[in-house]
Amino acid sequence: MDNQFSNAQRAEVLTQALPYIKRYVGRIVVVKYGGNAMINEHLKQQVMEDIVLLWLIGVKIVLVHGGGPEISELMARLGKKPEFKDGLRVTDKETVDIVQMVLAGKVNKTLVNLLEMKGGKAIGLSGMDGRLIEAEMKDEKLGYVGRITRIHIEPVTDLLSNGYIPVVSTVGCDRRGNTYNINGDTAAASIAGALGAERLIMMTDIAGILRDKDDPASLIPELTVQQATQLYKDGVISGGMIPKVDCCIKAIDEGVKNVVIMDGRVPHSILMELLTNEGAGTWIRGERK
After folding, report:
1. Is there a catalytic annotation at residue 244?
2. How far apart are CA 72 and CA 75, in angstroms?
3. Which residues neighbour 184 within 8 Å (Cβ) at sequence distance 6 or greater?
4. Is 2 a catalytic residue?
């Protein structure tokens, strides 16, 4: 592999990336990470490499992660059957303890360790640290599933200003001592909005927004919020993509410059999105064309 490219070709690649590097140096990019890119160990290594590379060139990266499969795996080992309603995990008191153990513990610290091994400086946070994600019960039928009421962003900005990559697990809390399971996409959108991020990258298990859900070639590369709203009405955005696009629009409404829904199964998709003119996935922006 190393012999495929000459030194001149490598230099040309770096030169082509320079305008994109200049655009993002010193800017905040929030990455929502989960799905197959987290389960597949090879892809996980590449995602961590992408993040560290961006951090090394001066991009301020915040990594927000989920861990649904790992939660379900531990529940199964403990003899507890996962239950879902409208795509959300029903979370009783025992389940929220499992969520906290998996997300704020195993998954978060594993990602921090991987980033450090790749040459980065990372510190893990949960939404409970510094009351980063304050929440209330979303619906009694769902148990301890949280609706975000406030983001206290200072723990994240303090880490960024000191040169760290914040790694945030989506566990929230209230002022009565309760812990809540927070939807990862919603948390990432709220955190990106509070930071006024240049870009929010939502890593998913599909190529992006498709005109035909069964045809990856029908990818829509770019949309305004207004066009996305029309696609709801046309039935193009449907099913599980609706809450994801809702989070994208929420992030833009709260001050994020633009949002990308992209396929986390594609190797080095983050670098493709930020440092090339092709991108990777569907780019949603707020202004009209």
Report:
1. yes
2. 5
3. 32, 34, 64, 65, 66, 170
4. no
- Among candidate residues 34, 35, 66, 208, the one labeled active-site is 35
User: For this structure, is 35 an active site residue?
Assistant: yes
Print burial letters for 33-51: b (CB count within 10 Å at least 16), e (below 16): bbbebbbeeebbebbbbbb
Contact 148, 135 (CB under 8 A): yes
Angle between helices 225-234 and 241-253 in degrees, nearest 10: 160
Other CB atoms within 10 A of residue 13 CB: 12
pLDDT at 2 over 80: no
Specify the higher pLDDT residue, 7 or 114: 114
Q: Is 185 an annotated catalytic residue?
A: yes
Identity of the residue numbered 61: I
Gap between the Cα atoms of 30 and 157, Å rounded: 12
Q: If you average pLDDT over every residue of the chain, what do you get?
A: 89
Per residue in 127-181, pLDDT tens? Answer: 999 999 999 999 999 999 999 999 999 999 999 999 999 999 999 999 999 999 9
Q: What is the pTM of this model?
A: 0.90
Structural domains in the chain, sorted by start: 24-285 (3.40.1160.10)
Of the residues 34, 66, 67, 68, only one is catalytic, namely 68
197 has a pLDDT exceeding 80: yes
Q: Which of 127, 185, 208, 281 is catalytic?
A: 185
Q: Which two tokens stand for residue 122?
A: 């990372």
Which residue, chain included where needed, has tokens 């092709």? Answer: 278
Catalytic residue among 129, 208, 244, 281: 244
